[in-house]
Amino acid sequence: MPSRPIEIYCINTGSYIPVEGGDTLADLYARIADKIPFRPICARVNNKTEHLGFPVYAPKQVEFLSIHSGSGHRAYIRSLCMMLYKAVTECYPGAKLSMEHSISRGYYCRVYGADAPVDDTMLARLTRAMRELVQRDLPFERHERMTAHVRELFASEGLSDKVKLLDSVHSLYTTYYTLDGIADSYYGCLAPSTSHLQVFDLRLYKEGFLLLGFDPQNEAVAQTPSVQEKMYRAFTDHLRFNAIIGVKNVGELNETVRTNRTADLINVAEALHDKQIAAIADEITRRYHEGGARVVLIAGPSSSGKTTTTKRLAVYLMTNLLRPRMISLDDYFVNRDVTPRDEHGDYDYESLYALDLAQFNSDLNTLIAGGEVELPSYNFELGCRQYKGRRIRLDEGSILLIEGIHGLNPELTAAIDEKMKYRVYVSALTTLSIDDHNWVPTTDNRLLRRIIRDHKYRGTSAVETIRRWPSVRRGEEKWIFPFQENADSMFNSSLIFELGVMKAYGEAILKDVPSDCPEYGEAYRLRRFLSYFQEIGERHVPPTSLLREFLGGSSFHY
Q1: Burial class (CB in 10 A: 0-12, 13-18, 19+), 501
Q2: Inside any domain, residue 1
Q3: What percent of the chain stands above pLDDT 70?
């Protein structure tokens, strides 16, 4: 007796489509390609991202995704990475490719052990090899095998970092991909084939080069790198630190946990934070005594740890015999009836123009000149500023600390003499790699921090935090990232051990995201990401740690 067709509900077409059991998502797309205005790179099945070779054996909800979606863009970049790895092995046999972190709108790569320098000639050769792979339209073939066999495969290719990770995770089966004879693993799906990767570029950058994907504003051209000299130095300093302590990737971090060395790791990482903040305080103090630096502006993206950094900086400034005074930018919001709105018609409190810039600059100039001002307080219930007699004056040795996302934007303090300002940029620049071909995205680190903090302190579910995250990121791209190179100092707030500590918190919160909501896919991806980390207890995390801002147990008041 013939089996009845399975019905798939396709979100893209808004209709049920009958398929045979075992048909893949690619088979389904081929039947309805004329109804979808883009070529999908992956799909969301029951709200979880899957590759197009995913076979269907039961009724599912399916949404095909373009390269412009979050999941689609990640699949594109992962596939580019594997294509680059194939090109390196083909052009420079025996060489090692290391993809270290994202920077300057691209992905910073190094090649070690090649019989040629990293120069224009190398990049031209690698680019030609990658273009040939695109033209050949080779498949990225997905496999799932016993981990012991995958371990042997990776060992034969010299991928010792992946072997170390597999040894520490203890999964019975492991998923990996092959491309024209080479094997590699990526922590998410890849494109169906190389012909999906039409746009990319390789550009020399420092001691290595940048792998650039397509420009989100125009997918026909590659991204143009941005200048991020200070960001590069911040990354490089922490990469050197990772190398010195012998923890460069997740496999090595897990080995530290297994051998009971996490207390030492936590102590060293916290000492590095102390040293960096003390150095910033010393530089501010030097400028203060030279007649400048009366206003310290601390800025950074969401969940970068700005608040704790500001509080710890205040402590070190006091040890330098200065008296920090705090002003909140939130108190300078304009009244709600004149607050700008975003593209959805909602009040846009992240806009620079949600602040009364004229009053803010006037008050700062009065304080710098030795005068007294009455500080406003913003009443969020009424949507207006109020004055309650809270007055402030900068006495001898006093210095203003102002935390807020717009601190590096010149327009925020346009009326203030540049000499009187010192700008600090705070960001969690994650330098730990999963392995040599997979980095830990800084945005994922910050999102996990925010999910944990919002759940603990604001009663906000992971669903709501994940739902709002794209809007938060758009605000950062507009109001924060363009100005980060204006900083006088950069503070990397990431801690090499923090994902191991956040693992238990994050998994417990993320598992409550229901599978029938769109945010489930992102929650599942983050849970899978956390699964690579061995859990680290928080017993040795000190109460002054920046991580306590998110976990609780801080000795600072927020």
Answers
A1: buried
A2: no
A3: 99
